[in-house]
Amino acid sequence: MSEERTFLERAPEYTFALAALVAPPLAVLVPLGMAVYLPIFGGLCAILFWRGGDFGLLPIAPLILVAALCGWGAISLLWAMEIQSGALAIVRLAALSIAGSLSFALAGTIRLERFRFIVPAFTLGIFVAAVVLIIEVETGNGLSQLIFHIKAGPGQFLSSTQKSLLGRGGTVLALLIWPFIVLAWRARSHWAIGGIGIAMVALLLSDSLAGRLALAFGGAMFLLVRISPRIWLRVLKAAVVVCVLILPGVISRAPQPPETFDSMPWLPLSAHHRLLIWHFAADRIAEHRMLGWGMDASRSIPGGDETVNLIDYYPVTHGTRRVINGNLMPLHPHNAILQCWLELGLGGALILAAFLWTMVGNVEKSAARDPLSAAGIAGCIVAALVVSAVSYGAWQSWWVSTLWVVATFCRLTISEPLPSSGEPSI
């Protein structure tokens, strides 16, 4: 009987060790699988949490704001063009948030002295994910070719101009690395610290620009908060709110192609296309600024399916012919803030701003007690904002799942330490 009780007491630790082992390689190889991973992980956490968890550990304020966003989204269905897809997006967001909040709460029950399985498992998961990305680069997207060949059938291969299919995995790794850094440092594990180095090399070598930007900006915020937590967390808290509120106006005044071909030739072609998409989104936002076009309306926004065909003939490209050929709105704006404004108007933007303010505010409250975790979580928040600003749809199930999984691992880093445990400074 005692053995069974001991196993049940350790079940949360085993669950998180398995989750930490699986998440990084799954995110790299099958990123859309994160939409399945979170419900399974959340279901296990719900069972364990129900057996003795403290409901005070649930992220109440963020959950209230997610509920407010879902409620406003449901109201927006009254004027939405995509009622069915909008309703499904709301249901998915709510369900994934419940699963994510339960895993987040269970993470708060695990003390640092019980991480002896979690950190090695996380290290192995990060190592495998990083090695896969490095192999992808060194083989010229060889793994992508193999995956595409398996999916498409015999004789089908990626063209030489197509990007790696593992790009999503690079962006997820750029988020997971921040809680891993904190846990690795606390564990004082040479293997784990080595895993940090390998993960950074993989991100720098990968062709995921979003991943590299997330690593750079997240790293900058990590260092700034480590130096002066109080000042920089306040700056971050104010900055995220201001950014949410003014972004549509800033975008509408920013240059766009073909002007940017000349003024910003150093931008990759995909960034020029993003500027076109964002300008189109800003124009549509201005038409329905207060209420938006309705939940998940981006995919059917008027004019969004118009094809753009711009060619860069400017001499700065050294004679290289670059072509933008795509839709003005390919399903979503590739920017979570603009998507929230576009679909949910000012009301949605205010809820998003409140959510980000609350999230950073919670980190600020813990900074005095746990500055290392505060720096890691602040770096992760900035990295997530960078990726959300240039990639993916705000309501995509795999992306929402990824954000909740990353938040859960961040919650692990602020578990109460042993009274006798010191903490090295970095």
Automatic annotation (TrEMBL):
Which keywords accompany this UniProt record?
A: Membrane, Transmembrane, Transmembrane helix
**Tree of life domain:** Bacteria
Membrane topology is: Multi-pass membrane protein
Residue ranges of domain O-antigen ligase-related in the record = 198-352
Q: What is a single cellular component term in the Gene Ontology annotation?
A: membrane
Subcellular location field: Membrane
| Transmembrane as UniProt keyword | yes
Q: Which residues are the signal sequence here?
A: none
For the keyword Nucleus, the answer is: no
- Please give the start and end residues of each transmembrane region: 21-50, 56-81, 93-111, 117-135, 165-185, 191-224, 231-251, 336-360, 372-392
Q: What is its main location?
A: membrane
| Pfam families for the chain | Wzy_C (PF04932)
This one is known as O-antigen ligase-related domain-containing protein
Phylogenetic lineage: Bacteria, Pseudomonadati, Pseudomonadota, Alphaproteobacteria, Rhodospirillales
